[in-house]
Amino acid sequence: LFLPIGILMAALVIGLMLFRMRNRLSPLDELIAAIKRHQLVVHYQPIIELASGRCIGAEALLRWQQPDGELLRPGLFIPLAEESDLIGDITGQVIDMVVRDLQSLLVKDHSFYVAINVSADDVKTGRGLDTIQRALADTGIGNHQILLEATERGFVDATSARLTLRRAKELGHMVAIDDFGTGYSSLSSLQRLPLDAVKIDRIFINTIGTNAPTSSVVSHIITMAKTLQLSIFAEGVETQSQADYLRQLKVEYGQGWLFSMAIPVGEFISYYLKNRELYPLESASPRDEN
Ligand code: C2E
Ligand code: MG
Ligand code: MG
Ligand code: MG
User: Fold this and answer.
1) Which residues surround ligand 4, an ion (CB under 5 A)?
2) What is the widest separation between alpha-carbon atoms in the chain?
3) 180: helix, coil or strand?
């Protein structure tokens, strides 16, 4: 008697699995569907001028809104998009969303800017730049208000990278190298790229004030960026002592949970309106010394 019941149970389980598989899209198909259904949303992380504590801009960070309301972080789906050629569509959606979300703020306040992450593929082909120009046309938003962040993976093909970055600069965009310090760019290769800024990866910011063997790396990175006359953004600033240290070394800009996480657009606009005015964090602002 047990044998037939066992077989019946096994058949039932297998049947159920097949049913579920048939009704489950592959992760890639789900991502394609999500793009079509506009289930990608952008959150904004404030960028702070460290000397004054003012909010001067934002980084656009993508989230995938699941039907159950859960938000997926880009680390879980951007790699998939990059492997499959979808990344161009995603860059297009991000810039469209930035325009839709923040157009009135960007047009009213020409000193405000938004940083957008472009993928290695966007840099290699230069197509991301065309997408961005199309999205910005007739919006009243200046190209100088869109900062492009590219990781060093985009610079592997140095010739095409240089072409894309040079065109970006000619169009008036600012260009920053993201996750700086985690790649393998040499000083001399950076020197030849038309860059405005580096964003120091948060793994280095994390070590500030600790005894970690890498904790001295951050001051070397800062010195190196200054030698190349690049502006510096510190990522992942979580504590006041990290912010103080960076301010002492005259790092200009910071982002991180000390100030704010990436937040939905409505919250960001209130944050910006409250924090765009200058209010010195210390009695003698380091800005006065320059
Ligand atoms: P990223 O450009 O280096 O962005 C910084 C990441 O650090 C973000 O993670 C941000 O939420 C997180 N972060 C910010 N402050 C803190 C902090 O104080 N502590 C900690 N622990 N984390 C902090 P997120 O949003 O998960 O994004 C991960 C990466 O995904 C980004 O790294 C970027 O490379 C990529 N990405 C995000 N949006 C886009 C996009 O629209 N297009 C492309 N191509 N890539 C994107
Ligand atoms: Mg970034
Ligand atoms: Mg980064
Ligand atoms: Mg990163």
Assistant:
1) 179
2) 89
3) strand
Chain-centre distance of CA 107, in angstroms?
A: 22
Ligand 1, atom 7, lies closest to the CA of: 236
Alpha-carbon distance of 208 to 219, in angstroms, equals 9
User: Do 146 and 173 form a contact (C-beta atoms < 8 A)?
Assistant: yes
Q: What atom in ligand 1 is closest to the CA of residue 199?
A: 3
Residue 260 in contact with ligand 1 by CB distance below 6 A = no
Residue 141 CA, ligand 4 centroid: distance in Å? 26
- 38-77 pLDDT, tens per residue? 999 999 999 999 999 999 999 999 999 988 889 999 999 9
46 Cβ contact list (under 8 Å, min separation 6):
55, 57, 58, 255, 259, 260, 268, 271, 272, 275
Taking CA atoms only, the protein residue closest to ligand 1 atom 41 is 62
What value does the CA radius of gyration of the chain take, rounded to a whole number of Å? 22
- Residue 254 CA to residue 272 CA, distance in Å, equals 15
- ipTM higher than the 0.90 cut: yes
DSSP letter assigned to residue 157: S
